[in-house]
Input
Amino acid sequence: ELYAQDIKGSIAHSQMLCEQGILTTDEQKAIETGLLQVKDEIESGEFKFSLAYEDIHMAVENRLTEIVGEPGKRLHTARSRNDQVATDFRLYVQDKSVSIKAQLKELVETFVNVAGKYTTTLIPGMTHLQHAQPLNFGYHLLAYANMFKRDFERFESSYERNNYCPLGSAALAGTPHNINRDSTSQKLGFIAPTSHAMDTVSDRDFALEILFNISTCMMHISRIAEELILWSSYEFQFVRMSDEYATTSSIMPQKKNPDVPELLRGKTGRVYGNLISLFTVMKGLPLAYNKDTQEDKEGVFDSVKTVEISISILNEVIKTMIVNTDKMENACKIGHLSATDLADFLVQKQNMPFRTAYYITKDVVTKANELNKDISELNIQEIRSANDELKNVSEEIVMYLDLRNSMNARNSFGGTSSIQTENQIKYFEEWLSSK
Output
């Protein structure tokens, strides 16, 4: 997993050693040419890995020495495997932060594009998984766009915070050789060298950060996966999964199981485990380097692969899902979603205290239940008959109880009205174009 970063770091190290007069120009050229050959051999499958070499660093160095001879033995001057592996691993984490960030940008764009199609489509907004207030489906999807935007920003922030070069820290205390750590840092794309050698070789905060970032992202993926599973059930029927992302039962041919969202939900526990594992490894380590930190890599590699495939698949699931707008809108007629609008009307138009309006609204809900109607379907006579305080209420109340009017009435900044949803889409489009 780290061969490319190891070779990249070794080339930069050799160039710096040459600049400092520690290697001759011929030695440096031989080393760089040899390292590029090793890279080609690994990528073509010709390279023979052996446990005799212990790790990727020694495997590359031994093969380099076989190719170029004596200069290969000089490469490790002024460094230790402690700072070498810290550099390789940090480069890997930085590279993956960039690539995962790019995937998240695409995912946000997908949510924004799909949301734009449904800014007037009603869906029940829920609290406690109970019908609460009417939303538009585009607004609901933009909640996830916000989550994945924050994930993007976490990877971006972590990249900036961890963009410092460990190389040259050596085993734990620096080196007596006349090296130039600024030169190496610049060649490898870091802002600057790390400032404390002992901290550097024992630090794995950058690995914990990417594991945390991935875990948070997977938690968001799991939440949308859960909603997709609910929405695709017979009880909801809000969406239908593309056949590419669902399967039938082995004995019940009529079934269409949301297997892919279920797997996305399940994979979340896996990345949580990797985060907790590394926290546990690090919690009792004395300074400086300890072999325990060899356990830092497998969990990171696994979590990276898991989140990469999960983002990619979720992106396609959202693009290809079929939305049943009629089912969504009909579901809004269950649970009296515009009840709060009646209370708000009484506060605004009748100058009632909210708590009084609240209890009067409960009476109207009771009346609607007696008539086997949703509150949005009541006529003015039915509303007036629910409570003496409503005997002379204006017919305007009927409009307030209309579901689409209720949704659009929430026109405050960040609200669910179609206008505010379209404004949020414009904001995301501007954000996406800036990244």
